[in-house]
Every structure is written in structure tokens, then in C-alpha cells.
Model the fold of this input.
Amino acid sequence: MAHSPHRIVIVGPGAIGTLLAVRLHAAGHEVHVLDHSPDRAARLNRDGLLLETETGRLRARCRATTRAADLPAADLAVVCVKCPALADAGRQLADLAHPTTLLTIQNGLGVLDALRQGLGAAAARHRLVASVTYQAANRGPDGIVRHVANLPTLLDGSPPLRPHAEAAATLLGSAGLPATVEDDLRPALWRKLAVNVAINPLTALEEVRNGQLAERDDLRRQMLALAREAAAVARAEGVALSDQQAEAAALDAARATADNVSSMWQDVRAGRATEIEFLGTALLRLAAHHGLPLPATADVTARVRALKHA
Ligand code: PAF
Done:
């Protein structure tokens, strides 16, 4: 191991949390898991975490707890819960005894606000660094998490967060997880938002893997229209994202993660709340503020919200 071991907390052992925990553990770091479920935390302490990679299965021994106050001082805590659970995770993290860098990696708009809301006054003790990730992982029907595509994570390096973002990116990089630090995260955030509002609702509604959106003419047309609507709002917000760039981002992501079950389809399948409030709903709210009609986004957002568990 060429780097020194660090202590990392993974908040929420879902698909992305498992991926990060196992990879960071395999790179020699000490990994702790903060979970909301006592049963699952007990299971993780007994069995560890399992990840299926291109080259075989990896198992990580980690220490799991439901009590943030029990966690030792950590170099980094990666908040991996889904958007609807962010405020609860923040409330749990408010008990952390030691200041740390809290890295968010969720899709959507309003992520830091939701975490801050849960943290309350404790937010001021930590460095809150936002990121955008293209990592793709999902949990199969057998319960095993598969690392589908090892794609970049982009971290917010705006001052005064830059050194903390760089330290976090170095940690991820030490585990073979590509990470870069951006002076301004907004272009990356909007590009990813265009990807998520274009891919996630459609895959959940049509019950197709991401690649089908690139392959099927009818779905590709819908996906590209959704991406263009997101780009229009980005421009209204002062972020330079052309229709062509947003379309290409959505198409590239659908192809690069062709075998993936999108996170929203995973949520619907598992009967969990989806992230639609942080994607379509949040985008429509901003669009209304700018007087922009988004017919395609309004349609899929309403349909996802009407799904039983959304
Ligand atoms: O939310 C997701 O599923 C992912 O962000 C992406 C890139 C659409 C791949 O499935």
C-alpha cells in the first residue's frame, strides 16, 4: 500500500455506500459504517460487506453502528443515503463527536440544504463538500451489490473547501475510484442533473435498464427532450450548458451504464421513496421561477409521483 491508511465513515450502506466501503477497505483504510437500522448494523458487524467487481468478489470487515457519537475521529465521512433520507442522516450525524469532512454524493438539487437542515447547529462544526458522481452500482435480487461502472466523481473545490476536497479526492483515488476537484461544481452538477432527470424517471416508468434509452428510438427521443429541458433551466441559472451538451451527457451516461438498473428504478422496485422531489420536482420549481415551461419533465415527474411508493 503506497498511501497511509485513513479512517473513513460511510453513512448508509446502500449500493453506492457498499461500493465505497468495500473499495476503501480493500485499499487498506479503516472503514466504519453509520446505519439507521440496528438489525442491519448487527448483520454488517457479523458478516461484513460484499461487493461483486469485474475481477471477483471482495468482502470488507467494517465496524457498523447506529450511534454517531460512538464513532472515532475520521478523516472523511461520505454521506451515501438517498436524498429522501438526507435530513434524517443529518440528524444522526449531529451527534458526531469530532469535526470532519462530510462529502455528499447524491443526485439532484438541494442536497446540501437537506443535510444542513438535519444537522442543525452541528453543520458549522464540519466541512460540507458536495460532489457529483457517475459511479454506478446496484443490488441484485440476490442482495449482492455489483460495481457496474467505475466512473468519475467530481468534488466541489471552491474556496475555502479546496484542501478538504483535495484530501477526499486523494482518498477516493487511493482506492482506484477516479475523483477530480472542480473550481466550480455548478457545470458538473447541472450536467449530472440533466443526466438524472433524463434517465431516472424514464427507466423507472418504463422498467428498462439505462442502455434501452439509448437504443430504442421512442425512449431516446423522450430522454433527449428531458435533457434539453434541464439545459434550458441551467442556462436560466447562469450555467453554460447547451442542448447538445446535455443531450450528449444523457446519451453517453445511458450507454456507459447500459446494464445498470437506475437508482430510481431500484427505489421503485424496492418500494422505497424515490428522489423525484430532488430531481423533476426541484427542476420544475426553478423553471417556474424563470417562467420556463417543461412539458416533458412535468409529465414524467407527475407519473413517477403517482407510482405507489414514490
Ligand atoms: O442515479 C443513477 O442511477 C445514476 O446516476 C446513473 C448515472 C443514471 C446511472 O444509473
In short: The chain is about 45% helix and 20% strand.
